[in-house]
Amino acid sequence: MKKQVKNNVYWVGKVDWELRKFHGEEYSTHRGSTYNSYLIQEEKTVLIDTVWSPFAQEFVDNLAGEIDLQKIDFVIANHGEVDHSGALPALMKRIPDKPIYCTANAVKSLRGQYHQDWDFKVVRTGDKIDIGNGKELVFVEMPMLHWPDSMATYLSGDNILFSNDAFGQHLATEKLFNDQVDQCELYEEAIKYYANILTPFSGLLTKKLEEITALQLPIEMIATSHGVIWRDNPVQIIKKYAAWANDYQENQITIVYDTMWNGTKLLAEKIAEGITQADDKVVVKVCSLAKSDENDVITEVFKSKAVIIGSPTIARSILHSVAGFIQLMKGLRFKGKKAAAFGCYGWSGESVKVLNELMADAGFEVAVEGYRNLWNPDSDAQKVAVDFGRMLARI
Questions:
Q1: Among 171, 213, 279, 302, which one is least packed by beta carbons within 10 Å?
Q2: What whole-number distance in Å separates Cα of residue 240 and Cα of residue 238?
Q3: Domains, the chain, ranges and CATH?
């Protein structure tokens, strides 16, 4: 069932209430998601994006129940990733001669994934299509936000920016608009989305926001490809992105650790106690990698000015859970954040040295040598850990 977005613009997507993992098993979606597809019915009828392939036939059948598919004049593929393009093969079987407007890189992506030679029409930033009734579609290339093939499409007259993945959230809801949902949940999913997906491209994002601003397009709505449409003060999410792209941090320190026999866990708790003693205004988060969702932890790292990371020594190195998490942080290319290391050991005690090296390689400023403790922390060692935390509050 289509839902009206504004005037002759309708949402024709799919709400996926059951989704819990995305990008394979890489991204957690505790609140599900939506795959937003949009239908514009002016003098020309335009479909913007489709849905993920498991829902392809449902999508095409529902769309055919709303309009005669032959009346679609063309399709716009803002991004070739399968959660947006997955229904194209089923749709194009029904309308094989209709053109698909996309970037040059999207042609490569769509051909590479579906092995079909559809009627591709390549567009670049500033290209326009008249769709009648005094309205135009304007294309804006958005490479690496978050694939090389990404673009946005702007509808003049209604002043809607169809932004694809930019400004989105993984949030399943029957509501269409940002002012209709829980604002805390919306913000949590928006910052998590940015932290885990868009952080590596912050420099490009800053330039692209400047480019969009230079086009002087009035924006009354931002229609994303996941989650809700920003209609109430849509500029608010643009301002958030501008802030998040600028080496973002809050007054927060996050302690991330894994443990074998709870010695390193105890150190983490005592370090947190010491930080709070020294500065009761700083937010302290303690995250066990064994018990926490790694994407949620990444979001806490994104918000932090410093990351304190701990592992016991094992095989003259660190636990593989911690090593993998540092590799994840390295790929996200965080900037402007400090780091320190800690851990227990029984024999050789290399973990703190290994952690320091890996964190430096991941782009963090290692602020202190770190703290390591022999065997299980006794009362004296716990006091040292508290003092270590008090010192970390000042780095």
A1: 213
A2: 5
A3: 3-244 (3.60.15.10), 253-389 (3.40.50.360)
